[in-house]
Here is the input.
Amino acid sequence: MDFHPACLPWLKNGDRVLAGLSGGRDSVALLLLLHRVGVPVCACHVHHGIRGGEADRDARFSRELAVSLGIPCDEVRIDAPALAGQWKMSLEAAARRGRHAALEECALSRGCKAVALAHHQDDQAETILFRLCRGAAGPKGIRPVREGRHGLVWLRPLLHLSRKEITDWLRSIGQEWCDDSTNGAPCCARNILRREALPALDRALGRRVAPILARSARLAGETAAALDEALAALELIDPQGRLYLPKILAFPHALQKAALHWYLRLCRVPGVTEEGVRALLGIIAPRGPARCMLCGAVTARRRERRLWVEDAAGQLLLPGRGREK
Amino acid sequence: MDFHPACLPWLKNGDRVLAGLSGGRDSVALLLLLHRVGVPVCACHVHHGIRGGEADRDARFSRELAVSLGIPCDEVRIDAPALAGQWKMSLEAAARRGRHAALEECALSRGCKAVALAHHQDDQAETILFRLCRGAAGPKGIRPVREGRHGLVWLRPLLHLSRKEITDWLRSIGQEWCDDSTNGAPCCARNILRREALPALDRALGRRVAPILARSARLAGETAAALDEALAALELIDPQGRLYLPKILAFPHALQKAALHWYLRLCRVPGVTEEGVRALLGIIAPRGPARCMLCGAVTARRRERRLWVEDAAGQLLLPGRGREK
Here is the structure.
């Protein structure tokens, strides 16, 4: 079992890595694999304050596994229901955000440069379908490597492996794990996707669609990146950070829209929508209105064949460098 | 019930339109709607030589409906099983191809400028999922307007409407239709997608995902179009139709790949794959090998900081204009 190639530079440089350890099959496999190839690894188990005795069992199992391997293991308790109320989000989303914050803090206190999470190809397919059905412009997956705050890198070294490959490997070495009984319940979107939608797609196509969806997401990500790089190469921004309109006005329609969307993202305008881009299309022509409001109290203005954006205080929002999301 | 906005110019110009009429709910609604708004319309029923007596019933129903509306109606018989054998494809694919050929011939002989088909939003969602799970790089839908051979335009005026909206409308005017009993059978990919995968996605997300998937496909199509337009705007091709490499070599990785893929498509290299693009990446650097083989016996060559492609006979494949698929 190899790690995802994109993760290798961060796993081979000798830096200490924090592995999230729920006690489930994926994170157990991840910890064992990291340990076996000699990555200096610490573990962190996050107890979410839900799932009662089962969660206590998982915490105990994780602690004992780490001790048996001689790996330092921290246990962090969060109160996911309280966080959900406080952050006004679903229990699932609050648990994830709280867990990530706990892992970040733990990694920093242990001197780790990277956090490794155990998402695999089936998680990836679920995420792609979920985001697509919620309105993502294309199939958007989890990235194998993501740079986070405080210089921490978040890694998914198992992202190219199927759940079955991971399970088969654990069985082949006789390693046990804890099953989460709520994974089977048809209670939440993720579980319905995992237990009903993806198997139906597999049946319809006569094979596993997870690797195909993962490839689609990778290619779509490359297309989006190439478009951003092409827009940067077209040199559309003047030295003052404003968009130079004569070039844009000569573009065909789809490229005009893409250039305006890209500029708003570069300027970190919050919550850019298709409607916002359409509003901009209405003010870039020389004889149209010279300003429009965007979301987040941002105003776009045109003058002297240039376009720029200002916040509510009239402060210029200047474009950052590189690709912004 | 309005037609898809992209179809309106072709439905309002007074040209005669051929409507495909299977006798099913969607095509019955389409014919009635075209007739009601005064589009000069002919109908064509294609009998596929399968589904026995049920197909004969559909043909009779279609004929009678057209007669009752005073609309000229042709009936064309094809032998889908024989075509499947002859063309070495599935019965479903052969039936579709044979039907399209029959509609094309019928439209030309009737002096029609456009063919209208009754695909709707749920068909669109199925197609998007189907293509995505077969390896499309992004969500790719059916286009509402497509220009075909012999100057014929293929229209899908109901593509923005749900199956339920169409059914409700037919019921509201008391119009009957024929049900295809094989639509319900879990025999083929399409039916499993329609009857199992899409409903599971609806349940997971708590709402109809079809309009969301349709929007995703539209946005992904715009991104792909914008990338092609951006590549054209970057002026990468020299007056002799060869790719000028110094510009390409200065690009970041994703844009390099996109530029090479775009050039191969412009030159109509058949069956361009990611592997083919990778092979090109290996020969564009000044000190690498100066040629590589692509699929379809096409050779790519580099000389004097230019790249071009040749067919098996050593004939230059020159880039066409505009966007090629």
